[in-house]
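Sample intake sheet
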Amino acid sequence: MKVLITGHTGFIGQAAMRSLTQADVQIIQGFSLPEHDVRDYHNVHDAVCEGVDTIVHLAAEAEVPFSIEHPTRTFESNIVGLHNVLMAARHFDVKRVIFASSSVAERPRSPYAASKTAGEALCKAFAESYGLDVCILRFTNVYGPGSWHKTTVVAEIIRRMLQNQTITIYGDGSALRDFVHIDDVARAIVLAVTREQSLAGRTLSIGSGFITSLNELFSAICFFHGDHPFEYKSTRPGEVLEPPPATHIEEARRVLNYEPKHPHLDLKSTYDYFVAEADRLAQLSEGIVVTRKDTR
């Protein structure tokens, strides 16, 4: 089996590549924004070669605040990019396309969420119109090692703690989220890639099945880091306030035999990763300073 991953250099893409390789799946070099922009069909066509069995489409503009400031770029990357992937898959008779969606697609309050809602509709249209085996994996709030560059809530809190910055909690902290570990997301992708039966038109929610408030999340991180100053601010535009229903992962359990190995928050490995990454970046920064002094 040959799998092409778009967005292969990203947080989820790297984890998916590791898990697929461990499952003896051959990975064809993927492409990622901005090096190979999925908004250009020719780039996508050139990347999808003969013999590709499955495309895992992860490349996207994935930040809510960015989408509010740059709705056109979000539309072009997330909708036009997906359309290009689906067209190339149809052209090369790719057996399956797996589209990475988000739980925010259920209640679109931002251009990012709307792009995922529209993307899901586009996938279902291609499944119905052209018989393309397109599967939608709707991820909740993904966290875990490898997410230093992300602006998701877990990454933002830990990074700001390590940089001695005040933590901002938007709203009163009672908002509920399903935080899913990156290893469980990668496992779900493997299950979707390797499933023999058709997944055409299916939408499968991938989460932990466990709901946590933002206040509970902050307290859990403080358990490792120690007390840290924080402040409450008004909820930002585009924020999703309602959690997914408690049964939202049941379909994935039934269809993929998906079972999260981290149903409850597993923050230790994440916090340890952030500490190690902060130390590495600090040493790198010090090295650059020393080099500059030596060359003067």
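Comment: The first strand starts at residue 2 and ends at 6. The longest helix spans residues 268-294.
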